[in-house]
């Protein structure tokens, strides 16, 4: 396994911790998203300034990096609202349709078209996710505003992956992360002000959870995933991110005693097999 794939795996493990922390419900979803970005920025900014790793790119890459930050922040905000208006399961499932949107956008608008293995792997992985969640869930799914918001979240996620893939060929990872986090923090801060969210008054446990979200789920995770995105196909990265559902399920069983059924195990194996199919051909890419 080469370095980008190792980085992607560790990054996925880091973001898989996030749903466990959110389930604790120590703060609201929007303020949690704001501090996730703000704390990550607060940790990264002194490092890039002291080590002089921060390089302001030319105007076009700078604008695209800022746009990526707003895209990512929008995705998080829309996803949180979708959860509040429906369920975490529905919102997470629909958001994780992002690989499909990445494939469709790449097919119609980009030169680097998805391979046959990507489409086969996507179908298998999505079937595995459906099995993991449970077929009965789809019978009860409501096609309402929350459904539309969750779909929008997946589209935003897909656009972010593709746009960041493009800009990371022109901007180094540390500069890109600093700029995009700065944009995300300002954007989410404005949303929280409009929504009249409290910025202070949390318990010590809540602040600890917020710090872990910023340091591990955002900063460490997305430095690693950005490195993987820079060196791998965007379609493979997006599909691999589906595995966070499997890892999150295992962590929920390990730390908060959520049950794992045989159906969930089978679904997880199918999902991971689908991801594996996309890596079967052209292994040096």
How does this model look, in words?
By secondary structure, this protein is mostly helical. It has one domain (3-278). It is 78% helix and 0% strand. The chain has helices at 3-16, 18-23, 29-50, 59-85, 88-95, 98-109, 116-133, 135-139, 145-167, 173-194, 204-231, 234-240, 244-256, 262-278. Helix 3 (29-50) packs antiparallel against helix 4, helix 5 packs parallel to helix 9 (145-167) and helix 7 (116-133) packs antiparallel against helix 14 (262-278). It is globular.
Topology record:
Layout (H helix, E strand, L loop, with lengths): L2 H14 L1 H6 L5 H22 L8 H27 L2 H8 L2 H12 L6 H18 L1 H5 L5 H23 L5 H22 L9 H28 L2 H7 L3 H13 L5 H17 L7
Helix pairs in contact: 1-11, 1-13, 3-4, 3-10, 3-11, 4-5, 4-9, 4-10, 5-9, 6-9, 6-12, 7-14, 9-12
Average pLDDT, to the nearest integer?
81
- Shape descriptor reads globular
Q: Compute the number of helices.
A: 14
How many structural domains?
Answer: 1
Largest sheet properties: none
Low-confidence stretches: none
Task: Give, in order, the helices and strands.
Answer: HHHHHHHHHHHHHH
Residues in helices, as a percent range? over 70%
Give the percentage of residues in beta strands. under 5%
Strand element count: 0
Distance between the termini: 12 Å
Question: How big is the Rg?
Answer: 18 Å
Give the class from helix and strand content and strand pairing. Answer: mainly alpha
Protein name: DMT family transporter
Family: Belongs to the EamA transporter family.
Organism: Flavobacterium sediminilitoris
InterPro entries: AA-Vitamin_Transporters, EamA_dom, EmrE-like
């Amino acid at each position: 396994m080469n370095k980008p794939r190792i980085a992607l795996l560790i990054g996925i493990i880091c973001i898989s911790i996030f749903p466990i922390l959110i389930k604790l419900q120590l703060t609201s979803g929007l303020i949690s998203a704001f501090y996730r970005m703000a704390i990550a920025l607060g940790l990264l900014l002194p490092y890039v300034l002291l080590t002089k790793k921060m390089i302001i790119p030319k105007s076009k890459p700078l604008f695209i990096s800022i746009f990526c930050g707003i895209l990512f922040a929008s995705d998080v905000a829309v996803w949180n609202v979708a959860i509040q208006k429906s369920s975490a399961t529905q919102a997470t499932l629909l958001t994780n349709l992002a690989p499909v949107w990445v494939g469709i956008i790449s097919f119609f608008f980009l030169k680097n078209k998805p391979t046959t293995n990507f489409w086969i792997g996507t179908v298998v992985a999505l079937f595995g996710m459906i099995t993991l969640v449970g077929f009965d869930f789809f019978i009860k799914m409501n096609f309402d505003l929350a459904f539309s918001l969750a779909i929008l979240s997946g589209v935003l996620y897909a656009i972010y992956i593709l746009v960041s893939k493009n800009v990371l060929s022109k901007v180094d990872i540390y500069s890109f992360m600093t700029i995009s986090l700065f944009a995300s923090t300002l954007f989410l801060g404005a949303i929280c002000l409009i929504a009249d969210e409290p910025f202070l008054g949390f318990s010590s446990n809540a602040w600890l959870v917020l710090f872990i979200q910023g340091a591990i789920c955002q900063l460490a995770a997305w430095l690693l995933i950005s490195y993987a995105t820079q060196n791998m196909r965007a379609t493979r990265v997006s599909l691999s991110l589906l595995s966070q559902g499997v890892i999150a399920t295992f962590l929920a069983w390990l730390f908060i005693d959520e049950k794992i059924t045989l159906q969930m195990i089978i679904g997880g194996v199918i999902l991971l097999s689908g991801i594996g199919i996309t890596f079967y051909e052209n292994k040096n890419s």
